[in-house]
TrEMBL record:
It is found in: Nucleus. This is Uncharacterized protein. One of its GO terms (cellular component) is cytoplasm. Keywords: Nucleus, Transport. It holds the Pfam family Importin_rep_3. It comes from the Eukaryota. Belongs to the importin beta family. The keyword Metal-binding does not apply. GO terms for biological process: protein import into nucleus. InterPro entries: ARM-like, Importin_beta-like_NTR, Importin_rep_3. Its main location: nucleus.
Length: 149
């Protein structure tokens, strides 16, 4: 798959890849022994991971991958809130962001909801809503059914 000159690999959306990324981020961020290595890891790979997550919500990933993407977003946002805010704004408002039905207002509301979220449930709700909006499914029975499956 190609999007805006960037190659998106199907492996990026496999369950094994989610598990590996989730485990790596969670354990690295929570280990005091790793110190600078944790900061180096997120600085080197955090933005590309977040970009894949946001592009996935906007339609690059199959809808079946949404729950895995939400889990990754929740971990990144809770462990690295300042970086998440910066990266989300940079990615969502970049000229090369995936074409979607999400308006600038919807994107701002999504960033605000994720950064203001204090629970995985609120993160999940905000991400599901953004996914519906970005894919043009908001207000449709198809979109409602896909969120509640």
């Amino acid at each position: 798959m190609h999007f805006s000159g960037t190659r998106v690999f199907p492996l990026m959306f496999s369950p094994l890849t989610y598990w590996w990324q989730e485990t790596l981020i969670r354990r690295t961020a929570s280990s005091d022994d790793l110190g600078d290595a944790s900061a180096m890891l997120i600085q080197a790979h955090g933005r590309p991971i977040l970009r894949a997550i946001l592009w996935g919500f906007a339609g690059v990933a199959p809808r079946s991958a949404t729950q895995n993407l939400i889990e990754l977003l929740s971990i990144v946002a809770s462990k690295f809130p300042a970086e998440t805010r910066t990266w989300m704004n940079e990615i969502l408002f970049a000229d090369d962001f995936v074409q979607s039905k999400a308006t600038p207002e919807a994107k701002r509301a999504f960033v605000k909801a994720i950064i203001g979220s204090r629970s995985p449930k609120k993160t999940r709700e905000a991400a599901q809503q953004f996914t519906l909006v970005a894919r043009g499914l908001e207000g449709t029975s198809f979109g409602y059914a896909s969120v509640n499956v």
